Amino acid sequence: MFEGLTPILMDEGYRFVLALLAVVITYVIYKTIMGVIQRRGKDLELEPHVINILRLLVRVVALIVAITSVLTIFDVPSDLFVGTSALLGAALGFGSSQTINNIVAGFYVLVSQPFKVKDYVKIGDLEGQVEEISINYTSLYTPTFNLLKVPNTQVMNSRILNLTHEGVIKYTFTIGFSQDYTETDITEKVIKPAMTEFCDIHCDLGLRSPEAYLDSANRLEKIYLFRLFIPKGDAKTLYTHQPEFIQIVMRHFDKLKAGK
Fold first, then answer.
1. What is the pLDDT of residues 101-154, one digit of tens each?
2. Which of 25, 48, 140, 217 could bridge to 128 as Cys pair (CB 3.0-4.6 Å)?
3. SS3 of 209, please?
4. Residues 229 and 210 sit within 8 Å (Cβ to Cβ)
């Protein structure tokens, strides 16, 4: 009674073992290539986002190879495969459009490289040091000492300002002073003494002296632009030194107002 089923069961068992073997071999090759990418990336000092691109490509290729191998071994009809793929694609399109858009945007950020890891950037209203660029998110170390994950769709659709040049964060900000005081008084009695005091504390540690320029003026105040120079990748120093520098400036301005 069961004699006719025996060859069928043996054939299906053989296919299952063969499919399992194909998946295992693909996985072993995938892990080997991933390890090579990680080691060679460190040896060649590749940027982390470049390594992320290579790892993602290998992952996609490995998945395609594994699925194709299994479908070929089980003789899945091509029209069934195409129909299933279409249905799956439609489901993903309706249910995960935002995720797909984010992945596409992630490829754009990784390939176009508007910034690199450890660059200090402003993305729209957000700012911080880039800690990681993945296929879904860009991670920023923000002035609140928190790690913010920004969706790559937002990155792609925002204005990006990279403040890192020549290995240095060139961070600018403005301070306004009352029109009751002349430009000479502000420069000689506030800005220069403040910059000297700040430099006496920090410039011996390798920091470049701050810079200041008269940026604009209105009927109420003179607005000066200040620039701090912080080594690339040291956003924590920026987050502590900027408020300290502002406090020093305002302390000298208070002395000017008090007539000292």
1. 777 777 778 778 889 889 999 999 999 999 988 878 899 999 999 999 999 999
2. 140
3. strand
4. yes
Amino acid at 192: K
Q: How many residues make up the chain in this entry?
A: 260
**What is the per-residue pLDDT across 209-230, written as a single tens digit (0 to 9) for each?**
999 999 999 999 999 999 999 9
Residues in Cβ contact with 107 at an 8 Å cutoff, skipping those fewer than 6 apart: 135
Distance CA 199, CA 197 (A): 5
Q: Which of 139, 136, 164 is nearest to 234 (CA)?
A: 164
Instruction: Spell out the domain ranges in the chain.
Output: 5-95, 115-157, 168-258
CB-based contact 135:107 (threshold 8 Å): yes
Residue whose entry in the numeric block shows the structure tokens 């450890």: 118
- pLDDT higher than 70, residue 176: yes
First vs last Cα of the chain: how many Å apart? Answer: 111
pTM of the predicted structure, to 2 decimals: 0.68
What is the Cβ-side half-sphere exposure of residue 164, based on CA atoms within 13 angstroms? 21
Backbone angles phi, psi at 142, to 5 degrees: -90, 165
Residue 192 phi, psi (nearest 5): -65, -45
CATH 2.30.30.60 fits 115-157, yes or no: yes
Residue 149's DSSP bridge partners are: 139
CB 132 within 8 A of CB 117: yes
* Contact residues for 10 (Cβ-Cβ < 8 A; gap 6+): none
CATH class of 168-258: alpha beta
